UniProtKB/TrEMBL annotation:
SUPFAM superfamilies: Class I glutamine amidotransferase-like (SSF52317)
Signal peptide bounds: none
Source taxon at top rank: Eukaryota
Protein name per the record: dipeptidase E
Family: Belongs to the peptidase S51 family.
GO biological process: one example: proteolysis
Gene3D superfamilies: 3.40.50.880
Enzyme class (EC, first level): hydrolase
GO terms assigned for molecular function: dipeptidase activity; serine-type peptidase activity
One Gene Ontology cellular component: cytoplasm
Organism whose genome encodes this protein: Tenebrio molitor
EC number(s) per entry: 3.4.13.21
Length: 253
């Protein structure tokens, strides 16, 4: 097995920045380090694939990279040839259903984990890098055959994490409460640790080494422990010491 190389973004757009602009330095460093020239873009989290490709291409082009849309070719063959894979945001259920329907889960996982093909995910694309999509915020507008995803990392991610506003009149469940409800499931369910990425936070993975990058803190939910604030620059490699998170954790950060 090769060293998986991942750059997992909470989102493509952050307030005050253009498309992928807040992560431009991290993306370019990531791609330059891996010496790639072409990015295979997977737009399946959106309905209009051509429009999504047209939105993504200019950004990568100005950085000096060619972008190919997976929907323009045989998808499995496109993944087999890919130098880099970028899965964009949108609806996670639609994305995962399409990946399952086109039999792409195994081939993407093989290219990333066995061949070391660099992987960039944003929002929904970050969700599907995890073992499962339990912690997406999206509406289930379609029904995938399984919630099981690419399983490139041994924990789930909640992109677009929002802190509760003590001055809000909204009395519904907070994002934190929903993640804690997930962690309260009985042990017969596959329950994973959850890294909650606020807007502008990014996880960089190199093998089993991981670090929080970007411009905002994250929040880590380990089952049986109080949520922890994670500063930019924090080493999160210890998350790779665990797989299924149905047991209590004693990890200290």
């Amino acid at each position: 097995m090769s060293r998986p190389r991942l750059l997992l973004l909470s989102s493509s757009v952050v307030h005050g920045y253009g498309f992928l602009e807040y992560a431009a330095a991290d993306i370019n460093t990531f791609l330059n380090k891996n010496r790639v020239s072409t990015v295979l873009f997977i737009p399946y989290a959106a309905v209009d694939h051509d429009a999504y490709l047209a939105k993504v291409s200019p950004t990568f082009s100005k950085w000096g990279y060619q972008v190919e849309g997976i929907h323009k070719d045989d998808p499995i063959e496109a993944v087999k040839r890919a130098e880099t894979i970028f899965i964009g945001g949108g609806n996670t259920f639609l994305l995962l259903k399409t990946l399952h329907d086109l039999n792409l889960i195994r081939v993407i996982r093989q290219r990333v984990l066995d061949d070391g093909v660099p992987y960039i995910g944003s929002s929904a694309g970050t969700n599907v890098s995890a073992p499962a999509i339990h912690n997406t915020n999206d509406m289930p507008i379609v029904f995938p055959s399984s919630f099981e995803a690419l399983n490139l990392i041994p924990f789930n991610i909640n992109p677009h994490y929002v802190d509760s506003d003590p001055n809000s009149t909204h009395k519904g469940e907070t994002r934190e409460e929903r993640i804690l409800q997930y962690h309260s499931l009985p042990s017969r369910y596959p329950v994973y640790n959850v890294l909650a990425l606020r807007e502008g936070s990014t996880l960089y993975v190199d093998g089993q080494n991981a670090i929080l990058k970007g411009i905002n803190k994250a929040r880590l939910f380990l089952r049986g422990k109080a949520p922890q604030e994670i500063d930019v620059g924090t080493d999160l490699s210890q998350l790779f010491a665990y797989t299924l998170k149905s047991e209590l954790q004693s990890m200290q950060l």
